[in-house]
From TrEMBL:
It holds the Pfam family F420_oxidored. Keywords: Oxidoreductase. Residues 66-108 form the Pyrroline-5-carboxylate reductase catalytic N-terminal domain. PANTHER family: DUDULIN-RELATED (PTHR14239), REDUCTASE (PTHR14239:SF10). SUPFAM superfamilies: NAD(P)-binding Rossmann-fold domains (SSF51735). It is an enzyme of class 1 (oxidoreductase). The keyword Glycosyltransferase does not apply. GO terms for molecular function: oxidoreductase activity. This is Dinucleotide-binding protein. Its EC number is 1.-.-.-. The keyword Oxidoreductase applies.
Length: 224
């Protein structure tokens, strides 16, 4: 019964792991390369772009200076900016995002108190963004990984795993495939509702690092 329910939620897929070199070569040769537009040029934007380009995707960045006027060329958009910046990005680019996958990586903390999230209780940044972009497929991803663990592919002795949540299975699988092709594990963490839990994990991890109980190269790892 529980297995049936889980299969319904996730499909029968096993955990996706990073591809072998041959699989990466096949991925690059056989698939039309995904093109990504990443808003932001900071730590996360750089680390994520490194993974995606290693896997054969093309990546363009839009920084804050050109954010209002830039043309969005990518098939997939990644919002690698502070959560408060997303409101103006959506205001400027909502039409360009229609029909596309939009990936939210934010941890929407109240950085004044470091004691709560700024999204409504029970909701998530991702759910708020999906509500504003009903014609886009919005995913949560990367928010439980510190930037350095994405660059190195390691959290301590473990491989880094990117957790992905969202309601569109094809969009999730496409991202997981591109992350795997870049040498990093990725896992379907469930529906858009799970973004709430992913943000709780990201919140806790941030408070642990902010209070110097763990390092910014550490964080939560996943044992499969
Ligand atoms: N750092 C981590 O380890 C980590 C882990 C998980 C999740 N996250 C999340 O990832 C996001 C980015 O964090 P980060 O550490 O990469 O921050 P960061 O290094 O400070 O970079 C933020 C980037 O956002 C840009 N930006 C701000 N407003 C923008 C706009 N309207 N349009 C386009 N770009 C804009 C900034 O450009 P300017 O410099 O020109 O202002 C900067 O390039 C945050 O939401 C954070 O919660 C971070």
């Amino acid at each position: 019964m529980i297995k049936e329910l889980l299969n319904k939620l996730f499909g029968n897929k096993e955990v996706s792991t990073a591809m072998t070199e041959t699989e990466v070569t096949n991925h690059k040769e056989n698939n039309a390369m995904t093109s990504y537009t990443i808003f932001g040029r900071g730590n996360m934007a750089t680390a994520i772009a490194g993974i995606l380009t290693k896997g054969g995707a093309t990546v363009e960045h839009i920084g804050s200076a050109d954010s209002a006027t830039a043309t969005v060329n990518g098939d997939v958009i990644i919002l690698a900016v502070p959560y408060p910046a997303i409101e103006s990005i959506i205001a400027n680019h909502k039409d360009a995002f229609a029909g596309k996958t939009v990936i939210d990586i934010t941890n929407p903390l109240n950085f004044e108190t470091f004691d709560s999230l700024v999204v409504p209780v029970g909701s998530s940044a991702t759910a708020e963004i999906q509500a504003q972009l009903p014609q886009s497929r919005v995913l949560k991803a990367f928010n439980t990984n510190f930037a350095s663990t994405l660059s190195t592919g390691r959290v301590g002795d473990l491989s880094t795993t990117v957790l992905v949540a969202g309601d569109d299975a094809d969009a999730k699988n496409a991202l997981i495939t591109d992350v795997n092709a870049g040498g990093v594990d990725a896992l379907d963490a469930g529906s858009l509702k799970r973004a709430h839990e992913l943000e709780a994990v990201g919140f806790l991890q941030l408070t642990l690092a902010g209070s110097e109980k763990i390092s910014w190269t550490g964080g939560f790892g996943l044992v499969k």
